[in-house]
Amino acid sequence: MILPIIAYGDPVLRKMGVDIDKDFPNLGELIENMKETMINARGVGLAAPQIGQAIRLFIVDTSPFGDDEDLNEKESEYLTNFKKVFINAKILKEEGDEWAFNEGCLSIPSITEDVFRHEKITLEYFDENFEKHIEVIDGMAARVIQHEYDHIEGVLFIDKIASLTKRLIKKKLENISKGLVSTDYKMKFYTAKKR
Questions:
Q1: DSSP per-residue string spanning 111-124
Q2: What residues form DSSP beta bridges with 95?
Q3: Which of 36, 91, 108, 126 has the fewest CB within 10 Å, making it most exposed?
Q4: pLDDT digits (tens, 9 = 90+) for 73-102
Q5: Antiparallel, parallel or unpaired: β 5-6 and 187-188
């Protein structure tokens, strides 16, 4: 089932995700719904807070990057096949030079900005079968993971951009939080309860 994506302005996007266990209710269904939702929105990653759940779960599918003409065959194949579920992830180490890439976010449509991230990470996580992994990941896959990891930490990519740039996009962000944005996927906008 395709779920609405939570828009910028909703407090759930700022919550620290909590660890879950293998008995989390309807976990398999939740993961499948997240995959459908991500594919429908043409995303390369989706974190549980983006569908309203402040838990430490995100999915990544870097296959759209596999078509990049600048990649060698091995890199292209790796990105095309990099489709994973990450539960209770912890970044153990960040290494290498930070490099800039123009990032966007399904929860913050119509805004993209250059974000600097480390080129290599060591990540501990559980997969959808609750098997534990420790992996060293680099390049574009590491970047996508760092972006989604930020979501389960209550951090958004716009927190990592220059303060001048933040001021320049302030009105756009306000419009998103008010629902004044058009997307070709379902979104859910936060409305504060009046007392």
A1: EEEEEEEEEEEEEE
A2: 120
A3: 36
A4: 888 899 999 999 999 999 999 999 999 999
A5: parallel
CATH number of the structural domain 5-188:
3.90.45.10
State the Cα–Cα distance between residues 84 and 93, nearest whole angstrom: 19
**Percent of the chain residues topping a pLDDT of 90:** 91
Q: Which two tokens stand for residue 145?
A: 């993971």
Do the Cβ atoms of 66 and 79 come closer than 8 Å?
A: yes
Query: Which amino acid appears at position 18 of this protein?
Result: V
DSSP character at residue 178: T
Q: Which listed residue (95, 148, 153, 174) is catalytic?
A: 148
Give residue-wise pLDDT tens across range 31-58: 999 999 999 999 999 999 999 999 999 9
Alpha carbon distance 165, 158 (integer Å): 9
Distance between CA 131 and CA 193 in Å, rounded? 41
Q: What are the distances in angstroms from CA 51 to CA 68, 139, 178?
A: 29, 27, 18
Residue burial 48-79, b: 16+ Cβ < 10 Å; e: rest: bbbbebbbbbbbbbbeebbeeeebeeebbebb
0.90 exceeded by the pTM? yes
